[in-house]
Design goal:
Keywords: Cell membrane, Membrane, Transmembrane, Transmembrane helix. The protein has 341 residues and is mainly alpha-helical. 70% of the residues lie in helices and 0% in strands. The chain has 14 helices and no strands.
Length: 341
């Protein structure tokens, strides 16, 4: 992550709700160029690996039944919706209640920022769009960063049972113990009193005004519940494909490899902030996890289809959100603004 202060934290909405003047965009930094190069290298590696196993993968792809594919797509629409509702709950708690249509417009269009190499583009995009509804940028930025932290924490918590599949038995035991120790520490950091102190401290260091109200326990619990629901939908979408390609896999193995495994692989992808949407990392780990209970060709096919389904869900929701946001002037340079109570 860059050491520069994100505009979402450094800028505020003026008293009349209009955006302050902005300066010309700075030149692309060496770190930004490195991120793009790294993303290209990983994408090339993924394509080459897929090409080398294409015979097995293509056979598995054609073996997926239409019913399993439809079920996978429908279940894949659940995680973005759950995530948006969790984000909306915290935004409401901080003083910016939004009906679902504008919340979806801001959240889903901003989510496309995760496909850009870097780690703050989603937060910045949501903050800029939210400013047109007179949501202070610092408030949007705090909600976005809390969302990332809780998504990572819940993903790691759900993914712990899948760790032994990636490691030797002795290593797995040690790593699992470390993760189980780390999770309470992360949970303590996200405990509302501690989290509110960290937010206030961060805003003070950035010389920004404090939030008008602190985060409540109820809001953090609500967001966590929605995020756990998102992981459940995602794991079920993987399990549908895995069961279709490997009918002999037991329900317990499906839960560990698909439910817990997908959450663990996704959390690992989130930690590699230089790569867009965890591309390569999530897919590779998912193949390794699924490979424990099915042929590697079938596991790769599942990872490929899941990448397509999750991308389709993000783009489909973003298209709907874009249409709404465009109609209400949340995009572009128009000075007209909509406002919701």
């Amino acid at each position: 992550m860059s050491d520069e202060v994100p505009p979402a934290l450094s800028d505020e909405v003026t008293a009349d709700g209009s955006e302050p003047p902005t300066e010309g965009s700075p030149r692309r930094s060496p770190l930004a160029i490195a991120r793009i190069v790294l993303a290209v290298v990983v994408l090339v590696a993924v394509v080459l690996a897929l090409f080398q196993t294409w015979d097995d993968v293509s056979t598995s792809l054609t073996a997926v039944s239409p019913a399993a594919l439809v079920a996978c797509v429908l279940l894949g629409l659940g995680p973005p919706a759950c995530t948006m509702l969790g984000w909306r709950a915290v935004l409401r708690d901080l003083g910016s209640p939004l009906p679902i249509p504008p919340a979806a417009g801001i959240f889903f269009v901003g989510q496309l920022g995760k496909f850009v190499p870097g780690s703050v583009w989603t937060v910045l995009a949501q903050a800029e769009m939210g400013a047109r509804l007179r949501i202070p940028r610092r408030r949007s930025a705090v909600v976005g960063l809390v969302s990332v932290a809780l998504s990572l924490l819940t993903g790691l918590a759900v993914g712990v049972p899948a760790l032994p599949l990636l490691l030797r038995r002795d290593d797995a035991r040690a790593v699992t113990v470390l993760v189980l120790i780390a999770l309470p520490v992360l949970a303590a950091v996200l405990h509302p009193p501690v989290l509110n102190w960290l937010i206030a401290r961060g805003l003070r260091l950035l010389r920004r005004e404090p939030l008008e109200r602190p985060l409540s326990r109820r809001a953090v619990a609500t967001m966590s519940a929605w995020f756990l629901g998102a992981w459940a939908f995602a794991g079920a979408s993987v399990a549908v494909l895995a069961r279709d390609l490997a009918p002999s896999v037991s329900p317990a193995e499906l839960v560990v490899t698909c439910g817990c495994g997908f959450a663990l692989a996704s959390a690992a992808g989130m930690l590699v902030v230089l790569l867009p949407a965890g591309v390569g990392v999530r897919d590779g780990l998912l193949v390794l996890l699924l490979g424990a209970v099915m042929p590697i060709g079938a596991a790769t096919a599942v990872a490929v289809i899941i990448r397509f389904v999750t991308t389709f869900a993000d783009v489909a929701y973003a298209a709907i959100g874009w249409l709404w946001a465009r109609a209400h002037r949340l995009l572009g340079t128009s000075s007209d603004e909509s406002r919701f109570s």
